[in-house]
Structure formats: structure tokens, C-alpha cells
Write the C-alpha cells for this entry.
Amino acid sequence: MKFLLRISAITFKEFRQLSRDRLTFGMVVMIPLIQLLLFGYAINNNIRNINAGLLDQSDSSTSRIIIDTVKATQVVNIIEQYFSIADAEAAITKGNVRAVLVLPRDLPQRVANPADDRALGQWIVDGSDNIVSSALLGLARMPIAPLQQGTGNTVSATFDTVLYFNPERRTPVNIVPGLLAVILTMTMILFTATAIVREKERGNLELLITTPIRSFELMLGKIIPYILIGLVQMFIILTLGHFVFDVPINGQPLQIVSATLLFIAASLTLGLLISTVALTQLQAMQMTVFVLLPSILLSGFLFPYEGMPKPAQMIAEGLPATHFVRMIRGVVLRDASLTDMQGDTLFLVAFTVVGMILATLKFRKSLD
Amino acid sequence: MTNAAIDASGLTRRFGSYTAVDHLDLHIPRGCIYGFLGPNGSGKSTSIRLLTGLLTPDEGTVNILGLQLPRQAEELRGRIGYMTQKFSLFGDLTLQENLQFIARIYGLPRKGIKARIADLLERYDLTRQSKQLADTLSGGQKQRLALAAATIHNPELLFLDEPTSAVDPENRRDFWEKLFDLSDAGTTILVSTHYMDEAERCHYLAILETGRKRADDTPQNLMQNMSANVVEISGNSLRRLKQQLLLTPDVISVAQQGIRLRVLVDKGHTDPLSWLRAECPASLNDYQLAVVRPSLEDVFVMSTGAHR
Ligand SMILES: Nc1ncnc2c1ncn2[C@@H]1O[C@H](COP(=O)(O)OP(=O)(O)O)[C@@H](O)[C@H]1O
Ligand SMILES: [Mg+2]
């Protein structure tokens, strides 16, 4: 029972100090808010007025109907007109326009024979910007009502689409759950690592280790507040993501919280490990960045895991964030459960247990 | 089971190739105030860390209150108190919160904590500051708070590492009154210092230099058994005389103190005054010479390299 009292004494003290540490307290709330709002623009797929060009080789009444229909969507804003494919491509390369609509010479015939299944025209799209290209890809299947009366042929595409520069498409909805992984990685590791190293720096640790507190109690007491902080951040990110950016929350709350708790535990463990090695807060921060960067780049948050070369995938497999990105997307978007994602669940559990043991062994109560 | 509070032999600790504590032997009886006197870097803090189990010795054995270190270090925790050289309580907590935290860590019974803290705040004259953040305290107040925290669990043995280095002389005097109170109540105290006046208040004293113990005894015995006589010389042109005396064999050290020179002469000369006058007949004619009682500073000069 004494050990519970000691743990709670540490936790209580930690909360007191946190409540006075405006900066950290602000970061707890501001990091998720700001990141989410920044990424929010990327998530917002309701894009309008993309600058586009036109290459109308048929120059017919049919082509004018199509052009008017496309303009009516307000997705694109046709600002230039070309007379050859080469000009059109050059305009995209220079960045004058993000896309060019090409209407072929035989357009009237294509409209007349819907049975051919040939697209009416082609969008040449600058794929280097995912968000723009996804918006344009949405135009591929748009119906051109005045031309398709009674045909019932809505399966074949109205336009062909050629994506230049970046042939892969991604759903922006992926970003919010992924962001949860990145923000938790950043704050959880940084907060625990610096919270413990700070006491080393300020000399508090010299006092603490002459008291009856055990290393295990000290570490547990110090991470409990951060578990709660992590949950608060999860709540902020998912609520905001859902209500402001329309991210569907399909998973069970219990599953979402459990998955997040697992990841928080793994990240806190990593923070503890860092704190046993780092001598100053600056070192702790540098080591956090060392973990954070691959977590952002390799976890599948920004780039799909499948697209990475083998060595990168192997590094990614060693990062808790990779497993959490997979889990939380599964749980939030596809309503998967932790048992559906056994491999990732087990990895996080094992990571935490092994890390905790290492940290407790490494954190000896001495100044040696 | 020994009757000593601290029993250490051959205690040695190295940092790389530097030996910070070099074969230190200590035998400190229960109930006394024991002082470590030494200049900065002489190994006082390192010795205390070895004795509290914060550092592991490279060589030697330590027995504290009958417990063997480092094996039984955890059992010892609740029975000792340690006041670090650098203030190590939490600057962003109030006095009250700091003491509450320490009390809980030591597992004091819940009901007693409030009264115990009120009592300590009262005793160390901190009641008015109890809601103040520790960072905003003055040097003297911080030091009293640290002592209150180190004694909250009534330890049998108290380690104080240069407790008065950031404190003015008056606060220092008051602080020692508190230490004598604790000592009267039966607490054994080990205190390190580089102030002579403070060292003189200890029951026993060890003089440390570059990690070695140069002397240890009661301050009175140290002064009495010093292997030199002290001669005070007053007169004019002391600087020139000082240079001359330093060249005389068997003059161990010469220090100017205002209008006097304090000269340490080897004890082999039973009558140091006539010996000195015989050694430098011409130059000493215009001066008054007198043999005076040795001070602790003289002992310190004798036992350390300060005169070399
Ligand atoms: N952790 C350490 N690493 C390296 N050298 C140290 C360490 N701690 C102390 N020392 C060295 O040991 C010597 C004694 O230091 P210390 O015990 O702090 O002396 P004091 O407390 O008497 O001023 C000094 O020279 C100091 O530089
Ligand atoms: Mg020191």
C-alpha cells in the first residue's frame, strides 16, 4: 500500500507542476489544434477554382455543351486555350494551369455512339499535388446530362484521366487518424523525456534517490499524468476532425480508446528510455526528433507503406507509429477491432513491456 | 552491530583517472556533529554521496547505522536525511506542497502530516511563506526549507552538504542553533563546510584535501596537537619582512593579517621567539613578537598544502 501512496504523491506533484507550467499546458492543447487546422486545409477536398486550360480540337456545338457543363461545376476555372498538345503540356509543366481538358476531333461521333465505351475527352492533370488531382479525378465520371438522355450508359467514364508526375491517389480522410499518431509521438515522447531529464538537470533527482521511492514507482508516477494528456489530445483531434473536417468515426469508442492507450503506453516507454540516456533537456529533444522524423515519414502517415522500398519498410516496422497508423485507420475508418489487427496490437504491447523493463533496469537509483 | 553511525574504510572513488576520494577511513560515533572541512574540489560532496549510497565506491566498505552499502541501501533510505549542496526541492511548488510531497514519499502517516508540516514551518520560521513558490525564497529561507524537508521523517543520521554556503553570517548562526537542537535530540549530523568558524562548532572534524583525509580529531585537539607554534609579529614594512621570513628554514608559513604577520614555526624550537630573533637578528629589532594560541585556520594551513 505504501507504494501506491508514493506513486500517487509523484503523480499529484506532477499535475501541480504541469498546472503551473503554462508552456507545456499550452502545448498539450495547442499542438493538436494548430496541426489539425494546418492539415485541415489539406483535408478539405471541397476544392474550387482550380486553374485549367482547354484544348478543343473538335470546336463543335457538342464541345461547347461539355465545356459549359464542366465550368458549371466550379471545380475548374478555364483560363487558357491551346491549339496543340505540346502547348498544353508545356503550360502544365510551367505551372500556369493544373490541368488541361482535351476534347478530340471526333467528339461528335463519340457522343453519337455511346456503345463504344470510349471517353468523350481527356483530362491531363498535374499529379504533383494530391489534393488537386483528387478533385480533378472526381470530374472523370461526371455526367453530361444534355448529351446522355435515355442512354442509361453511366458506367463508362465521361473523361479519360491521365495523371502526370504522381500516379497514386490518396484519401485525405487518412490524414486525421494519422495525425493522431504523429502528435502523440511528438508530445508523449517529448513530455516524458524532458520531465525526467529536467529533474536530473535541476538536481531534484539527487534528492529523490535518497528517499525510499523506487525507480519503478517514480517512473510510473511520472507517466500517469501524460496518459491522461494523451487521451485529451486524442479527444481533441478526433472530435475536431469529425465535426470540422467530416472525418467519419466508424469505430467503437472502446476500441479507439484502447488502441490509443496502447500507443500512448509505447510512446511513453520510448520517452522513458530516452530520459535514461539523455543528460540534458536539449539532448532529450534531439533524440525525440530522431524518433519523430521517421515516424512522420515512414509510418504511412504521409506516404503509403506499400510504396516504400524494402529497407524503409523494415525500419517502419520497428516504429510504434507505423503500427498505430495502421491500427487507428482500421479502427476509426473501417470499424476494425484490436483483435482484427492482432499483429499491430501485439507489437505495441511487446514494445511497451520490453521498453519498461529496459528503462527500469537502466534507471538505477544512483548518480554513477 | 556497531555503535558507530558511520564506519567506512578505504573508501575510494575515481572519475576517469582522477581520484576524487582516496582511501578515506571514517569512524563517526552516534550523536555527534562531524565536520568535513576542505576547499572546493577536495571531495566533500563525493564522500557524502558515497556515504548516502548515491555513488558506488570503487574500493572500500561502508557501514551506515549498521547497514552495509550498497547492498542494503534501500533499507537505509528511511533512516537518513540528506540536504544537497545545490537546492534540490521543487522551485515550482509552494513550501507547503514541497513538504507534503516529501512527507508522502517517506510514507508518513496521513493524519500526522499536516501537524508535522505546521510544526516544521513554525520551527524554521517559514509559516508566513508557506504558500509561496520555493523559487521565490531568499537564500536563508531556501536553506531552512531544505533542512525541514531533510528532517521531516526524523532521520537518525543527517547529511548536510555545505548547507550555509549561500547564507549570510547571521542566518548561519541561527542555522547552527537548529543543528544543535537536532543534535541534542539525538540526531547524528555530518556536515561539510569550507568556513573555519563553522568547522570549529563541530564535535569532530576531518580535514580533507584532494580526496585525502589530512587530519581528524576534535577541533580543540587539532589545535593543541598542531606541530607548529604560532608567532604574531607587528610593526611596519610587513611585506618585506614576510619575504625574508619565508626564506628562513623551519618557518612553515607566513600570512599577513592586517597589521600583523602570523608565522608558523616548527614545534622543534621550544622557544620560538628567541629562535626567530636569533635567526634574523637585524630585521626583527623593530618588531613586537608574541606567541599566540593556534586557530583552526593554522591547523588547516598545517595539514593541507596551502603553505607550499
Ligand atoms: N560526476 C563527476 N565526474 C567527474 N568528476 C567529478 C564528478 N563529481 C566530482 N568530480 C570531481 O571530483 C573532485 C571532488 O569534487 P567534490 O566532491 O564535488 O568536491 P567538494 O564538494 O569538496 O567541492 C572535483 O575535482 C570534481 O571535479
Ligand atoms: Mg561540494
Summary: Residues B 15, 20, 38, 40-46 surround adenosine-5'-diphosphate (ligand 1) (CB under 6 Å).
